[in-house]
């Protein structure tokens, strides 16, 4: 997948998450730090039903099936692996506990918001 395609997929996943009222939708560009993936997209929701709803919207709205799906049964932390983009959908308490946002704090991060604006550089937490 090209860099442009990775960027587009990240943006699409972010918009799909926002369509289900996901909170704090953050894209983290990890290309310079790891070979696992290009981007992490992290978002959260207050209830298990909403976490599942966000995951379902992403799965239905993306052009390809995820290569790997984890945590769908528990609905506390669902991971959708699209190889170049990995989406993490957390229940709010789980997100605060694992704090992936801070774990990758050295990487550029962007908040994806409803009006298509991106806030560049690190997001204060």
Q: Which terms would index this structure?
A:
7-stranded mixed beta sheet, alpha+beta, 125 residues, Beta Polymerase, domain 2, 34% helix, 4 helices
Quick gist of this model?
The chain is α+β, with helices and mostly antiparallel strands.
Q: Determine the CATH topology.
A: Beta Polymerase, domain 2
User: CATH homologous superfamily - what is it?
Assistant: Beta Polymerase, domain 2
Adjacency order of strands in the biggest sheet: 3-4-5-2-1-6-7
CATH architecture grouping: 2-Layer Sandwich
Helix content: 25-40%
CATH class: Alpha Beta
In terms of structural class, how would the helical and strand content be classed?
alpha+beta
Query: How many domains, as an integer?
Result: 1
Unreliable runs = 116-125
Terminal CA distance reads 31 Å
Roughly what is the average pLDDT, rounded to an integer?
90
Which range does the strand content fall in? Answer: 25-35%
Rg over C-alpha atoms, rounded to the nearest angstrom: 13 Å
Number of helices: 4
Biggest pleated-sheet summary: 7 strands, mixed
How do the helices and strands follow one another from N- to C-terminus?
HEEHEEEHHEE
């Amino acid at each position: 997948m090209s860099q442009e395609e990775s960027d587009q997929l990240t943006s699409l996943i972010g918009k799909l998450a926002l369509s289900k009222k996901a909170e704090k939708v953050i894209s983290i560009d990890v290309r310079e730090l790891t070979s696992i993936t290009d981007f992490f997209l992290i978002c959260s929701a207050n209830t298990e039903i909403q976490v599942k709803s966000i995951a379902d919207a992403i799965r239905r709205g993306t052009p390809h099936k995820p290569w790997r799906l984890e945590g769908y049964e528990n609905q506390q932390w669902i991971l959708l692996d699209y190889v170049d983009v990995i989406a993490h959908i957390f229940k709010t308490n789980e997100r605060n506990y694992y704090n992936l946002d801070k774990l990758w704090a050295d990487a550029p991060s962007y908040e994806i918001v409803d009006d298509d604006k991106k806030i560049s550089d690190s997001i204060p937490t």
